[in-house]
Queue: 2 jobs
Job 1
Amino acid sequence: MCITRRAEWNTHVGRQLSRPVTGLAHQTAAFALLDSLLSPLRALGRYAILMGRAFASIDEFRMYWKNLFIQMVRIGIDSIPIVALAAAFSGAVLTVQTAYQLETPFIPESIIGSIVAPSIMLELGVVVAGFILSGRVGARIAAELGTMRVSEQIDALEVMGLNSVGFLVLPRVLAGIVMFPILYVVSCTVGIGTGVFTGHIGGFLSATEFLDGARQFFQLLDPLIGFVKSVAFGFIVTSIACYKGYYTGGGAVGVGDSTTQAAVLSCVFILVADLLVAMALL
Amino acid sequence: MIEVKNISKSFGSLQVLEDVSLDVHRGEKLAIIGRSGSGKSVLMKHLVGLLKPDDGHVYVDGEDLCCISYEELRALRKRFGVLFQGGALFDSMSSFENIAFPLRYFSSITDAEINERVQECLDLVRLSDVGPKRPSELSGGMRKRVALARSISMEPKYILYDEPTSGLDPETSNTINDLINHLADELNVTSVLVTHDMHSVLDVADRVAFLHGQDLEWVGPVQELHTCANQHLNSFVKASEYTIGSPSPAQSS
């Protein structure tokens, strides 16, 4: 029992379309150019829609709250060692290099503390943590969601009647927003702590001098700006990673691409957000 | 009943389905067959609203999937169980947790009742003792059976099977086919089977729909497969028969 037969018609139309028509070729090239120009805007639109869907599902969050705690542990608690390690070395290096640059009898040693502590609170603590986490957290989220996408696990969630965006994206983004400030505090504490330790061990200045200098020029705005940056970076890293992972196409190569793009884009947007927050609040 | 009315679907410049219409009747076992890349899985994803057609409509029990809200679609999807090609089991959970997953989110039954229901589903797919094992510890066939157990845990009205026997040895394929028949008879569900495995088609299906070159070229009872006049279908069936080693109608005559 034959339903339809369009094969001959399709072949006929296909033959007609495949004729070399110069005007058509120009038109196709123009469309391709326009398409590539509009591609970032399309991506931005898809990203905005995904975030909109994620936050719109907050009313059914009681179904997914367990996921939030799991993600807070994975994104936040599990990241403490690597953030602390990066912060420790940053604080130590900054102290040594500041001491080297200010090696003159006309400037008191306590100035080293006045420079190192605000630098860590304003910039280094949060940016270093952001970069580390875009690799550790961003890549992990993108790979996890990407694998779920290509192995049809996201489709399976949808078919069960679950809101996959609410279940997968929202807990990760909220966990990023909540945990990045905590990691920022860890980063600043360890960074300044190793700064004090390195200054003392290296014979540049005593712990008292360091802390006196830090106190002398302390402004509440410094940690406040760092805090705002950490919230922004938490959102940037997790939301970009979720977007890239959720819309992964293809197989293993697609997952690899999404993971790389998530890490790279997060770093780029961290730098942009860093500048914007600094310009807005300073 | 599922009604597909004149749907077309393309991905970029690639036209996958064009003006396809198909009815799936209550309680039947329909097999959608066709060559790899002929749009079988795409058609199946339209049935459950995972893809929206560029043109046309899909009705499930009278509700148009293309016109309902996302919330209504989610509610409607609970009538479906889907066995995905690779199983789509959540690899961070044990087999037990995978099957219990929809029950935990969409039923108000107690933990003890969930345990009982999960064991019942595992028994149905004849894998009573794999509950604690993770998907990575299971063979391909076992993974599909656990996925099948998960898809029936909510007692769906429709079960969609996407290539249920692909990549499995003949014996395991037969086990899966037996299970599909058993579940259809036991649970009185409507089954839609997407496959290019003619063994499965002959073992399971009541009716067959043949996709070729974006079109649904033939729909009919499985008994008419060998007598139909469609050249593409004849060629497909003949190739499958060579593969499975039984004589084609021409050879037998």
Job 2
Amino acid sequence: MEKLNIILNINNKPVDVRITPNDTLLEVLRDHLDLTGSKESCGEGVCGSCTVQLDGKPVRSCLTLALEAEGLKVRTVEGLADGDKLSPLQESFVNHGAVQCGFCTPGMLMTADALLQQNTNPDEDTIKKALSGNICRCTGYSKIVEAVAHTAHPDDQCPDCASGIKSCCKTKE
Amino acid sequence: MRLPQFDYKGPDTLEKALDLLSTHAQDAKILAGGTDLLVRMKKGLIAPKTIISLKALNELSYIKKDKNTIRIGARTCLADIIASDSVRKEATALSTACERVGAVTIQHFRGTIGGNILQDNRCFHYNQSAFHRSGRQACHKDGGKICYARDESDRCNSTCQSDGATALMALGAKLVLVSKGNERTVALTDFYTTDGIMPFAMEPTELLKEIIIPVEGGKSSYQRLAYRSAIDYPIVCAGVLLKASAKKDTIEDARIVVGAMGRAPLFLAKESSELKGKSFTDTKAFQKAGNGAMNSASTFAVHNVGSTLEYRCATVSEMVFRALQEAVAEASKA
């Protein structure tokens, strides 16, 4: 079968890869480029663990042909941290215990990061809606939502506490 | 899951796409977003030799509003439709329906309105892995002669679970189909065959170019029931369009459509016409319409999309009732 050379822009670096037309973006990231942060779970767009950003928007990489990502900016979970310094969102996930087994985390991070780029101070409903396409089978959603809510204001109250709907921040030390 | 092998074509004009389609018609598939096509390919349900991608065809991505219509390009992604003020105002049902499809992460890039209308019919006996299907005889849709959903049925009973198509049929939408040197417009109500194997009345050389929604001042609503609010197909859904009389207290015209209950969304002409002239406060008439819709839709439904048939049939009336109430609330506001 014919092989093609394409150039993908991954985490702001141009990468030359040799692929076949039936390679998905996820397969190229994991198998060709060793960027194993993005996970394959269901492989049919249900679970969200393969989420990466294309031009800043969260997209299922298991349902995206690598060929279709040519010319777009691909950002994976490996592109969030700056060297050893975690991004504020990653830091918040760690501080709030939002990681259990960790399999859904890369997808959650990429979806939440895309949300925070558009809306720096989202309330709980907005976060839940944005994350509705990502499944966590450890059932740890409340910590994840909390982690996202506190990213912009690590020491401050989240929007729901500030308006008196919840009191998660007041109990925190 | 690996995708089977195929040739990839990425035409950059509509003309080139139609040329390719006319040459490869029998073994080619159109790729818009891929949320339906690539999943079926991964499961080995189809194995097209050629994939014609619409990625470069930006000319098919637009929302145009003029005096009496809204025109939407077939490759417009769902996120653009949700964000459009004119669609939200004039075709509320479509906006709500698009919001319910998949999740936010599917609505941009991957989810397109054309793909949503043309998603293949589903059945939990058919949409399974190759391994699962290898353990029994093939069904009608798989090339065999059995229907597992309805005993002794001589044809495929797969269900159309498109949110977009149900809402658009309620809005009275038309589709523009193009092939090389030809263009035709067909009402969405006439677009379906009664065969679950190939549910759409379109030629393999044809491409869905545009959706035309007439805007005549009616108020619409869409209601759906699914197990999960995100990433799930509807098990019952209903779309409704109401036109108010000049005094804004009675119904001049109505369209009721029920989805996910048959091979195509069902336009219920009898129940719709019975609502004409009824008062906005006549909740008994709405309940009667809901019950009528339940009786009509029940004849078409089979037990093949998740929930039990009894539950799905019982909830049709409530979905229609809620949709009518919401549309009336909107219409009396305006």
